[in-house]
Amino acid sequence: MSEVFLLLLFILWLQFPPTKPKVPSAMCTRIEIFQLLHKYYQTGDLIIGMIGTQFGCMLDEIVFSEHPKTKFINQVLSVPKNYQQVLSLIFAVKEINENPKLLPNISLGFQIYDSYVNARMTHQNTLKLLSSLERIVPNFKCDMQKNLIAVIGGRNSDISLHIATILGTYKIPQISYCTLSPMVRAKTQLLSFYRMVPNEEYQYSGIVHLLLHFRWIWIGIVTADDENGERFVQTLMPMLSQHGICTAFTEKTPAIAQAVEMLLSIETLNVKAISISNSKVKVYVVNARPQIITCLTWLIYLSAMLEDLSTVSMGKVWIMTAQWDFSFQTMQRYFDIEIFNGALSVAIHSSEVLEFHNFLQIQHPNMHKGDAFFRVFWEKAFNCLFSDSNEDKESSDTCTGQEKLENLPGILFEMSMTGQSYSVYNAVYAIAQTLHKIYKSKPNFITFVDRGLLDPSSLQPWQLHPFLKDISFNNSVGDTVAFDENGELASGFDIINWVTLPNQSLLKRKVGRMNPRTVQGEQFTIYEEAITWHNMFNEVLPLSVCNDNCHPGYSRKKKEGKPFCCYDCNPCPDGKFSDQNDMDDCSRCPGDQFPNKNRDQCLPKDLNFLSFTEPLGITLLLLASSFSLISALVLGIFIKNRNTPIVKANNQDLTYSLLISLFLCFFCSLLFIGQPKIMTCYLRQIAFGIIFSVAVSCVLAKTITVVLAFMATKPGSRMRKWVGKRLANSILLGCSLIQVSICAVWLCTAPPFPDLDMHSVAEEIVVECNEGSITMFYCVLGYLGFLAVISFTVAFLARNLPDSFNEAKFITFSMLVFCSVWLSFIPAYLSTKGKYMVAVEIFAILASSAGLLGCIFSPKCYIIILKPGLNTKDQLIRRY
Fold first, then answer.
1. Distance of CA 805 to the CA centre of its chain
2. In the chain, domain spans
3. Residue 611 pLDDT more than 50?
4. Contact, 546 vs 220, CB < 8 A?
5. Confidence class for position 833, pLDDT limits 50, 70, 90
């Protein structure tokens, strides 16, 4: 039978349900006969009731124009795997009855009905558990009264609540084996209700931990369009957001009433297919209640009729909640289960009960006399009919009874105990252990039972509660079974990896555990290497993000109007780096490091200072040495020719002082080369300021001397008394002492010191001399500039005096060069960093000093060396 044909049959069945079969008896309705067929009763001193869920049905709406009655329409769904829960109860009762140490001489029986996933049917069958006869008479007592001691059920919160509203009236303990959703009034009014499953909050926490472990931050949520689905979304989404996980969309599967409309609406179908086939969303969290999985499966395959199946559903990671046990209805047995290959599910903790596997292997139709569930299960599971069946046998094989359960595909039946079956198994043992504890608490209980003096039926169900609440024991596989203060199982969840095989069988691997009751750090464990992913991932961990990760060297920037998981990647700005994926912001490197070109790591900075070994330092060293040598040479020439008129003219002592100060100026520039030390930092600016002040003071004194000399030659002039070495020396000493005083104050208040500048140059640490007080530094420069301006002004005013007797023109030009150099020095100095700032200052010192040396002394050296004939007194007087 093709898949498309199955889909069409399902749609037609929903639209045109089969007609009602004939009622074989006038005394009862068809639904009552249907219920009588689907029950299983085994006698015992104490009876455990069970409301299971193997079938589903649709019922007619009540019409008030006729006498009220329940009408059966048809059996809709059959889930063969759910019958394992019945077998689990039977197996547990059998073990307890055969155990001489547990409830000796007292037998347990059971009575099983089905809920049919329907409120009316659930209420009706719950009342039948309370009744003595087949008719519903709950409070009627007779000799055939069965001693119902507890009830196990139901499959979900709705069914459990229907059961609890009746059992709570009689205070009969009810243990649900798969109810995870919070139940209304469970803590306040449903005092007889227990759950053989952990708190649902642990399941949400497990899902969040699972997503965070695999860094899945862009997911889709699939849930039902009902109250339970809304509660699931409202509980899970805040936890996801709190942990940085975004929800791309929330897809709600339709309720049963909406199923036909959805399946027949191509437009609606397209919308849901596009939502599920979102290429960027690789991970789906599914609130895996059976009806949701049914709708989701149909949606996937109906969507495949419109689009390529691989683009719609393949290559996804399905994360299922604990309600799922990979059970398909018989009408879905031909579906390709590969779509769920590699799925992960949070599952009720279970352990393998070895004897249960052997128990399943020997199951045979002849073993279940009176079990109305078994024949239907066998026929649906093996797609056959027994020879005495009243149904049409033309399209089905005949059941031989020799079929083996281990040959069934995993989607229909598993040979290992499922989580729900394990919960049923533990629930039966919890009841038995409670009864054992009660009877042992009575004096001489064993003696009374042996003599037949104690009637087990005298025990009332309400007497179980004080003992059941505090029950704690280890089951046959060593797991601890106990209830917490809320009547829930004090345990956690398993994480299961589902691997599908081509023959419709499956492997169920336990790959992790979520148990908040364990020690900190071990509450969540996952064995990633044990997980088998969908084959479209080629065994590579799937990714589910809104966009690609921001690699190192980039930081995330939120996209406007998008969830916080969607972002752009911006390169790190200058001076910052990021060394991990998806950094919210780039970080600054430590002060002694800088980011590399890719800005994904920090590199150590090199020391930045003007070294004697680098080309720039060598060049400046050679220049300073050369100019110093020239200064010394000029000084030697002047000393050798000290008796000549050109040397004697204009104060010979000032000339020597100027040459010596220029010599020292060239040498003081060497203090700026090399790694700064404490002493060099003290001497740099101080020596430079004082020596230059002496040089400029000499120039100023020479200029003033020339001016006074010419003024003194005038008849009757009073300036003659000022002409001489006293005035020149006073000017030199006075101007120099002022600069010395400034430097002394500087050294005493905030002297320069070696410093490391981490930020001026991105990739280097600038080793420099911190000026200490920048104000005092500029005071030194300012005073030096003041002397230079005064010297330039005086020399400019005296430029027209006779050249043979004064140097006014040369001094004017030299001071022009000097001022030009230092005016250009200030902006150049402020605009450079590191060793280049030092180089600019050295250049300014050398250039200004060379300007003074060249402009003032080169004309005199020319005459002394090349034109000695002009260096005579007669020649100078004649020229005058």
1. 88
2. 554-604, 615-674+685-750+774-879
3. yes
4. no
5. confident
Spatial CA neighbour of 55 closest among 111, 113, 117, 120: 117
Q: Compute and round to an integer the Cα radius of gyration of the chain.
A: 51
Distance CA 240, CA 719 (A): 98
26-30 LR contacts (CB < 8 Å, sep 24+): 29/69, 29/70, 29/71, 29/72, 30/71, 30/72
Residue 131 dihedral angles phi and psi, to the nearest 5°:
-100, 155
Please classify residue 305 by burial: count the beta carbons closer than 10 Å to its beta carbon, then call 0-12 exposed, 13-18 middle and 19+ buried. Answer: middle
Contact indicator for 295, 556 with CB cutoff of 8 Å: no
- Nearest of 516, 469, 520 to residue 493 by alpha carbon: 516
Q: Rounded to 5 degrees, what angle do the CA atoms 298, 304, 308 make?
A: 155
Torsion angle, alpha carbons of 201, 205, 210, 216, to 10:
110
Residue 303: partners with Cβ closer than 8 Å, 6 or more residues away = 269, 272, 273, 276, 277, 312, 313
Distance between CA atoms of 566 and 572, rounded to whole angstroms?
18
Task: For the chain, give the number of residues.
Answer: 880
Q: Cα(97)–Cα(109) distance, rounded to whole angstroms?
A: 9
Q: How many CA atoms lie within 13 A of 247 on its CB side?
A: 17
Whole-angstrom distance, CA of residue 381 vs CA of residue 84:
12
Residue 174: both structure tokens together: 């009810």
Structure tokens at 680: 């060099």
Angle in degrees, CA 872, 642, 663, rounded to 5: 125
- Tell which residue, 585, 584, 664, 589, has the closest CA to residue 632: 664
Whole-Å CA distances, 98 to 94, 102, 440, 494, 582: 6, 9, 19, 31, 62
What is residue 836's predicted lDDT score, i.e. its pLDDT? Answer: 87
Structure tokens at 248: 């791309």
Q: Tell me which residue has tokens 């025990």.
A: 459
Mean pLDDT of 543-567: 85
Residue 525 pairs in a beta bridge with 513
The values of phi and psi at residue 290, to 5°, are -55, -45
Parallel, antiparallel or unpaired: strands 606-608 and 764-770: parallel
Contacts 24+ apart (CB under 8 A), 748-755: 749/773, 749/776, 750/776, 751/681, 751/682, 752/681, 752/682, 752/684, 752/685, 753/678, 753/681, 754/676, 754/677, 754/678, 754/681, 755/676
Please give the Cα distance from 856 to 197 (Å, whole number): 105
Query: Which tokens hold the place of 708?
Result: 């006074």
* 0.85 exceeded by pTM: no
Q: Is the Cβ–Cβ distance between 412 and 449 less than 8 Å?
A: no
Q: Is 817 exposed, middle or buried (0-12, 13-18, 19+ CB in 10 A)?
A: middle
Sign of CA dihedral 21, 26, 31, 35: negative
Long-range contacts of 753-759 (CB under 8 A, 24+ apart): 753/678, 753/681, 754/676, 754/677, 754/678, 754/681, 755/676, 757/833, 757/834, 758/591, 758/592, 758/605, 759/591
- Per DSSP, the chain holds a count of helices (H) and strands (E) of 25, 29
Compute the distance between CA of residue 679 and CA of residue 673 in angstroms, rounded to an integer: 13
CATH number, span 615-674+685-750+774-879:
1.20.1070.10
Q: Which of 60, 39, 174 is nearest to 118 (CA)?
A: 60
- Span between the terminal Cα atoms of the chain, in Å: 133
What is the spatial distance between Cα 407 and Cα 192, in angstroms, rounded to a whole number?
41
The answer to whether the beta carbons of residues 310 and 339 sit under 8 Å apart is no
**What are the tens digits of pLDDT across the range 457-490?**
678 899 899 999 999 999 999 999 999 888 889 8
Whole-number pLDDT of residue 304 = 59
The maximal CA–CA distance of the chain, rounded, in angstroms, is 164
Question: Tokens for 125?
Answer: 């069958």
Using CA atoms, how far residue 492 sits from 347, 353, 844, in Å, is: 9, 19, 80
Burial class (CB in 10 A: 0-12, 13-18, 19+), 225: middle
